Amino acid sequence: MMKSRKFINFFLIFIFLSLPTQLAYSKSIPNSFADLAEKLMPSVVNISSTQTIKTSGNQFPFQFPPGSPFEDMFKEFNKPTERKATALGSGFIIDKKGIVVTNNHVIEGAEDIIVSVNGSTEYKAEVLGKDPYMDLAVLKIKSDEKFKPVSFGDSDKARIGDWVVAIGNPFGFGGTVTSGIISSRNRDIGLTRYDDFIQTDASINVGNSGGPLFNLDGEVIGINTAIIAPGQSGSIGIGFAIPSNSASIVIDQLIKFGETKRGWLGVRIQVVTKEIAEVEKLEKAEGALVASVSENSPADKGGIKAGDIILEFDGKKVDTMRKLPKLVAQAPVGKKVILKIWRNQKLISKRILVGRLESSQEFKTENKIEPDKSRYVKVESLKISIRNLNKDDISKRNLPKNTTGVVVTEISDDSPLIFVSVNDVIVELQKKRVKNSNQFSDLVTEIINKGAKTLYLAIYNSGNQRSYITVKLK
Fold it and tell me: Which one of 162, 206, 213, 380 has the lowest number of neighbouring Cβ atoms within 10 Å?
């Protein structure tokens, strides 16, 4: 009898001890998102932007020689044409004066921007500043009305498994609310040099770009930017959002200066492999290996040399090569920082004065606009002709808006690219993003000169399906 009572008492104590834990978990699961959605909807906007796309006058795959009798006959067909293209996206209000945050690719090249608030009232908007590197833009609604803003939360506190809510304008269906969890953090998908995405399974589709990802406190912890959508099939539960902590730094700069002021070292870096770590007597493969140093750059003036391995920047550990550009970009321009580097199998420190990326020669060269984007380039080694992918191609073929690459215009019968056809778009070569025809041609030459036997390409075929192919070089 005594044993039975003891067992009952123990069982009751166990229930009482375990019950609060179960209740705590049950409280974290919302019964409904209705109250949260109702509160946040007035702060989320739909964005439509329009731009004029000019098409080439020559609609034939050839040109008539000057003075040809056919020139007058077909001149009507050769007139340049223009058409209006519209892009749809999302955004959210962060100031009662009507300041809106969205993705840069939503408004890139726009001539007119219309912001729809509460799904009904439309306003014209102007661009206060934009940042292609992190794919962010800040707009100002042209109105003296007062708007309802939302605030940023601390994205560093967001945990894998936390509930999140996305609100946006997918496929033009404004005011769409979806929910899910944070699936992962610190994702690098090769979209920008500063990739550090929050991954979520909340349904995100075309038109959600620039919209907010909320936590259950109604704070913006991410800006929905990209999805994985094989064959353009729409959401499969893998979406990516720019974390609010890194985004807010850029947004503040765009509002204050109309442009970004990123930190800059002036080094080209590469991955520290296991083999390099062994040779350098490092305990493990970490840090960023300096491949070269730009002349008169902050790194050059601070004594950084090619071959150094940067292990720490301003007190923050550089675990991987990709982490360094993010740390440097967030550093205030003009700040003196300590770099811990591995040189000659010893750990040493260097003091560097952080420069400004946008003032550097490499930035100006990288962002230089080519005067003639439609000209054809012959790549003799591959026996193909190519031209730059342009906005009209992207629009007609319904490719992702941030796509860059080259279009194959001609291919010889004896070309090694046997699985590539005319009108295919090459977007990657050896896992490097293809930006334009000249860069692609230079990359091919560089790869061949290094003795490579295989090319590794990412292409969109004529059906706009993306795939990787390998090409054996003779």
Answer: 380
